[in-house]
Specification:
With 324 residues, the chain is an alpha+beta fold. 30% of the residues lie in helices and 30% in strands. It has 3 domains: 2-108, 3-Layer(aba) Sandwich (Rossmann fold); 118-133 and 192-321, D-amino Acid Aminotransferase, Chain A, domain 1, CATH 3.30.470.20; 139-188, no CATH class. The chain is globular, with a radius of gyration of 19 Å.
Length: 324
């Protein structure tokens, strides 16, 4: 267990070490990729209780007496480009996005409106469903889907598998719903392979980069994310590519690296679970998977109106294991 900094300050409740591990994997992959671009100076902030980052030009170490929002505001004011990654929980990513947008600085991540929608599984369901995207039925507590033999409940703004629960018995679900937090959603459990895709987005267009297999475990009714295989689902490339284009068109404010969690049904059909308007844990294996610096791709997407993926990007399988 560990403590970590959130947008509101120091978070002192113990959290699973896997969440901290995911955050560090993403942070180090981001910094490592951007440091490989010539002429880029990297400004960052850091929680003093976690391992120091590498590849930074200047790093503000946050301590207990710091006000994180003041630090982030100062760093954004100094920067030319802002690349954000934060949890959607409690609106952290949205607040940071709005802070960057209000500063007038250019963002290398999604616009505030798309972050607002994607930060809510309920709003994401409504937007994708109305656009004809195949998305898992989603209902807000206290309602439950009218069909199905098993169900999943999650915080509406949760990240990874944080707070997700699995119910095989309808009576157990109904008992839980009587005392459930109002900020949770309910989805029918879809039999199949948990998966995700990594794509670049801009102005309603999508460029698929990897098709990933996810490793999900069930522990006493809880759902746990244990990592996965980047490009472990590359055999479904054509259908993932179509789905990526559908999601980007339905949410045209998505920009840069975006992850989509989904289920490959036993019948081969795809079912979207949620959209992450930021890079995800799979980004940690992206450079090795495509054999190309992902930060160069992102900057090319930002500056080049006629952006195209470079020829010859690879589809290597890269394992990411958490809690080893």
């Amino acid at each position: 267990m560990c403590e970590y900094l959130t947008a509101g300050g120091l978070y002192r409740e113990p959290i699973p070490a896997s969440l901290a591990q995911e955050a560090l994997l993403m942070r180090d992959a981001m910094l490592g990729a951007m440091s490989g671009v010539p002429g880029v100076e990297i400004l960052s902030a850091h929680d003093a209780r976690l391992p120091l980052p590498e590849h930074v030009s200047r790093c503000h170490v946050l301590n207990e007496d710091d006000v994180p929002w003041q630090v982030w505001t100062s760093l954004i004011a100094e920067a030319d480009l802002v690349w954000l990654v934060a949890p959607e929980s409690a609106g952290a990513l949205l607040q940071l996005t709005e802070l960057a947008e209000a500063s007038g600085k250019a963002l290398l991540s999604s616009a505030g409106e798309s972050v607002r929608v994607a930060g809510s599984k309920w709003l994401t369901y409504q937007q994708l469903h109305s656009a004809g995207v195949p998305v898992v039925e989603t209902m807000r507590v206290p309602h439950r889907p009218g069909s199905g033999s098993a169900w999943v409940t999650k915080p509406d703004d949760g990240v990874s598998c944080e707070g997700a629960r699995y119910f095989r018995d309808v009576h157990a679900l109904e008992h839980w719903l009587r005392h459930a937090p109002a900020d949770h959603i309910v989805q029918p459990y879809v039999q199949g392979q948990p998966a995700s895709l990594t794509m670049l987005c801009r102005d309603g267009e999508a460029w698929l980069l990897t098709c990933n297999q996810q490793l999900i475990e069930f522990e006493q009714g809880k759902i746990c994310y244990r990592g996965g295989v980047v490009n472990g689902a590359a055999g479904h490339w054509a259908s993932f590519d179509r789905l990526a284009c559908q999601v980007a068109a339905a949410m045209p404010g998505l920009f840069g690296y975006v992850g989509v969690d989904l289920i490959i049904g036993n019948d081969g059909r795809l079912h979207v679970l949620e959209v992450n308007p930021r890079l995800t844990t799979s980004f940690a294996g992206l450079h090795a998977a495509i054999h190309y610096n992902p930060a160069r791709l992102l900057l090319d997407l930002f500056y080049n109106e006629a952006f195209k993926l470079p020829a010859g990007l690879q589809r290597n399988r890269i394992e990411i294991n958490l809690n080893d």
